[in-house]
Amino acid sequence: MSGTLRVLAGDCQPTARAGELAARVYEVAAVMWAAEVVSAKRMTALAERLQDPRARARVMVLAAFCRAHASRLHARLATRRGPLPVATESHGGATIGVALKDEANFARRMADRYEVLAELARQHSDLQSAWVAELNRTEEQDRARELMMLAKGMAGGAP
Fold first, then answer.
1. DSSP string, 54-83
2. Rounded distance, CA 22 to CA 117, Å?
3. Angle at CA of residue 111, ends 62 and 32, nearest 5°
4. Most exposed among 51, 55, 71, 107, judged by the fewest C-beta atoms under 10 Å?
5. CB–CB of 31/8 below 8 Å?
6. All structural domains of the chain
7. What is the pLDDT of residues 119-145, one digit of tens each?
8. Concatenated DSSP letters of 119-148
9. What single-letter DSSP state applies at residue 93?
């Protein structure tokens, strides 16, 4: 498992060297940025499939939160040297209910990863990045709850 994946999985031991920590913070933030961009695309595509206007509007708002998370991370990434990440395309195809549950589970995992990123940033004394990670973590937790509620509401709903 690569260093980034171990960090995202939460089983990374912090290092004492500041340069390594700074590189880790940048690397994890870059992975998180790409994940937020992909999530925003998935959420927008999912919203377009929803029949209910209220649910569609809510999912579009949640997609906007993902874009805001990506924007905050991109701003933090731009303050450091190094290549900016490139997001990969996503693909869907599951029923709407399954897609909502999958995205809710993804949001929960993202919240956990933001917690790891915040801790790494604090260890590096990068309080701005820690604040961004904590804010994004809280919003990901909210997004997970809302998506799960929408999925439960769709239990007998459209494909």
1. HHHHHHHHHHHHHHHHHHHHHHHHHTSSSP
2. 11
3. 80
4. 51
5. yes
6. 17-153 (1.20.1260.10)
7. 999 998 889 999 999 999 999 999 999
8. HHHHHTT-HHHHHHHHHHHHHHHHHHHHHH
9. -
